[in-house]
Amino acid sequence: MKSCVVTAGRPTTCPLAPIPSSLLQTISGDLLPYLTSLINSSLTAGYVPSVFKRARVAPLLKKPTLDPSDINNYRPVSLLSFLSKTLERAVLGQLSCYLSQNDLLDPNQSGFKTGHSTETALLCVTDTLRTAKANSLSSALILLDLSAAFDTVNHQILLSTLSELGISCAAHAWIASYLTGRSYQVAWRESVSAPRALTTGVPQGSVLGPLLFSLYTKSLGSVISSHGLSYHCYADDTQLIFSFPPSDNQVANRISACLADISVWMTAHHLKLNLGKTELLFLPGKDCPFHDLTITVDNSLVSSSQSAKNLGVTLDNTLS
């Protein structure tokens, strides 16, 4: 329990918190028995207090170079109270342990795993591409982009998925309570909106949100694999890889069919594949008769580029 408080990080900037997290951390030794009792009561009852489900949303510009007057260029980051994140951290530890011990995590997911990071995901992808190149194969790397992924998660589908993973009883009830009855206020400059109910999604900026999202999308892997493509993920960033001999003239059709099924899966799970921002990097192998690639999905064209940015690192079509 002490580690949940100590590792909570920098002082909170959430105005909903009753006291600064730095002060709470300083006196955590005295408060630890009470915090432990509070968290144990919440877990046993399968209930999250409503005061812990309030968020102050601060719109954050996705990139400094984007137009600040376009609302679509902002990410809605939820500022949550220190105590609610401490409770989430306790649940995250137990849930991660259960998933790991029962081998329920996607082996192609580098997020939320001890010893894994964006570097792990990048190494897996580049190693696969380099191996294909060494074997005189061509490769296509597709970087999927989702629109407002965390915000549109359907709670009933998520809870059903958790049940299939064996999460039941008080643990399932706790997560159901965590997801429902949430509210938020948007803060912009000196103004704060009235509270609004949040009926879908998992909060961006929360402790549990990324792991819950990865479990929500776990079944997507089987859709990708059924088309003969490999994949690797980091949180909601999904990278598809298809390596093939230069003589294969059905590459575009096979990738298009895979993306079409991914789009169907996304729709069924209340997510949206943003083809306008999905990137395609084509790496031609030795003696490949063509040096670019275009695929068609839902009447939209996705053409290959000379380079693409993946998890903050720019890759080119020679891996140089």
TrEMBL record:
High-level lineage: Eukaryota, Metazoa, Chordata, Craniata, Vertebrata
Official protein name in the record: Reverse transcriptase domain-containing protein
Source species: Salmo trutta
InterPro entries, alphabetized: DNA/RNA_pol_sf, RT_dom
Cross-referenced Pfam families: RVT_1
Domain Reverse transcriptase: 41-295
